[in-house]
NAD(P)/FAD-dependent oxidoreductase (Streptomyces coacervatus), 477 residues
Amino acid sequence: MTETETIAYDVVVLGAGPVGENVADRTRAAGLSTAVVESELVGGECSYWACIPSKALLRPVIARADARRVPGLRQSVQGPLDAEAVLAHRNYYTSDWHDDGAALWLDSIGADLHRGHGRLTGPRTVTVTASDGGRKVLTARHAVAVCTGTDAVLPDLPGLAEVKPWTSRNATSAQAVPGRLVVVGGGVVATEMATAWQALGSQVTVLVRGKGLLNRMEPFAGELVAEALTEAGADVRTGTSVESVARENGTVVVVTDQGDRIEADEILFATGRRPKTGDIGLDTIGLEPGSWLPVDDSLRVPGSDWLYAVGDVNHRALLTHQGKYQARIAGAAIAARASGVPLLESDPWGAHAATADHHAVPQVVFTDPEAAAVGLSLAEAEQAGYRVRAVDVEMSSASGAGLYADGYRGRARMVVDLNEEILRGVTFVGPGVGELIHSATIAVAGQVPIARLWHAVPSFPTISEVWLRLLEAYRDN
Ligand SMILES: Cc1cc2nc3c(=O)[nH]c(=O)nc-3n(C[C@H](O)[C@H](O)[C@H](O)COP(=O)(O)OP(=O)(O)OC[C@H]3O[C@@H](n4cnc5c(N)ncnc54)[C@H](O)[C@@H]3O)c2cc1C
């Protein structure tokens, strides 16, 4: 290899997270030669520091909580979690932070992996700098797909670097349970990690600037999760922000704007994400380094006929499943354009347009209780100008709920579009609802008329009978 070897491909994918992997899968399936550039681990944030390790930590927590709600079983699961075994289980799920298996999979689909930091160095051109300083120039006949994801944002607090705060990476990969953990933030990462570490043995304090947790969901989601976290022993303080933080003799000392002083062993900042576009050469093609990359529904950056931005980096929905959905569409669009086939944005399979991003994004928060939602909340639907009505029922009204968990607590809401008589959004909060949300996703994405939903009969006695209760509540009020 010479220092400036140039290799031509049909497609260059920058970033091998779940999204980059799926773009490559689709372009390879279409017969396009594809290079994938990765600076860390094939599999991305999701596999090693986000979805997978966090859910591996949370699964035993939720299973134990569920078991404790079943008479006859409760007595057998009163002890603490075996934290060492839980962490080992998490390590197994991240392959101990090795990506050999993922790299082999890329090889099996016939994509070329180039390890190193990739930067655009002009239109259709990506220069890869390997850790040994070696460089390669990759050119793309048809498309460059930027799939570089996001990283954690830390607040601008003096001396924060010396405190060595946790970000989501530490919170998902720590090899020991901190005695006391302060979690700053009230979103999904904060609530999930507070749930996990409190159950694993930490004394958790959650500091939330706003009025409550999970403020992108229906308000009752955050209320129920905060209530449960408090019952689990965590100290949840809303309307509180960090004024200063320091590490004194190894102990983290936090002073809040309420004048409280809190001591802890570690502090996690789960205070937002920013796009990893600061150092990918956007300036060489007239774009702003560090910016999110807005795209059209084929995931192409407006004004370009070769640049795509897929997954977290386009800021449409920071979720793996939604990014993988976009990747399937981007791959299909790249292949169609490469072969000169016009994009049929209206084709019945919707193969070339990521329309679900606009109205039917599902999300599960793996707290105890779980919170799951799809589409718009009531506030979002009203803001979007829809004439809507919220229909609320207690989850316990479903016959299966009581059997699932003694004293089942949770709530469901559907947001009905009164003009179209379809659902704009659905939220479920309660044990086990993560597996229920796909029924709502089908109703929202499929714009199923309420009149037809009556004919989707929930099985007895399951939690999904909550659908019947929601329809009855809509009819009777
Ligand atoms: C703690 C946590 C838990 C989460 N849990 C869930 C969950 O349960 N379900 C869910 O759907 N979503 C979850 N998410 C969100 C999910 O992780 C992201 O939506 C997903 O990882 C986005 O995939 P991506 O491929 O776009 O980006 P990433 O997974 O971030 O991958 C981007 C890849 O690009 C590489 N890269 C970046 N810049 C360069 C460069 N210049 N050169 C070469 N390579 C580069 C990176 O090294 C990385 O491998 C969670 C996030 C966090 C933080």
Q: What stands out?
A: The chain has a mean pLDDT of 96. The first helix runs from residue 18 to 29.
